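Task card 7
Instruction: Convert sequence to structure tokens.
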Amino acid sequence: MHIKFGNYPQGADGKKAPIEWLVLDVSDNEALIISRYGLDCKQYHSEYVDMTWENCDLRKWLNNDFLEVAFSDDERKKIKVSNLKNDDNDDPEFDTRGGNNTKDLVFCLSIAEAEKYLRNHKNRKCEPTAYSLEQGVSVDFDDKSHCYWWLRSPGCKQDYAAIVDGQDALEFGSSSVSYDGCAVRPTLWIVLNK
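Output:
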């Protein structure tokens, strides 16, 4: 199921258009939604250093700049504060720290959430918008309609973060936090009929 909520640049010309969201979960009068497309291209963090979700630049951008640009005052009132559990990457090869739990309005899925809500390659497929391609999003070599996108979980080392790759596979080892080719798929809980 898709819904439209907020507006963000999506064409190569940078003009705003309604954001399409996939509904991942509904609980009582609330829905967990993720952008249908890779909306922008951002680094997880601007420096190649050890980093967790709590302190990364991507979290700051989502909860400040993106929030202000994408949603009106009335729309922002419908977005719930989410209590996020930032698990360690417990792959036996890595065992990297997830850091402190956080409270966020907008976030990226964790590895566990991606496995729960997007169980197969088809569900994890993410197409970039023309705007995100202009910003530098990387696409799969074989299928240019699939892009790489960030998860908030740590990767194989503390200076890496997990991603979904261009072939829609969860990459627990993932990419350097300063990699500049990953799309952003904002995720949030909204209150319905508010």
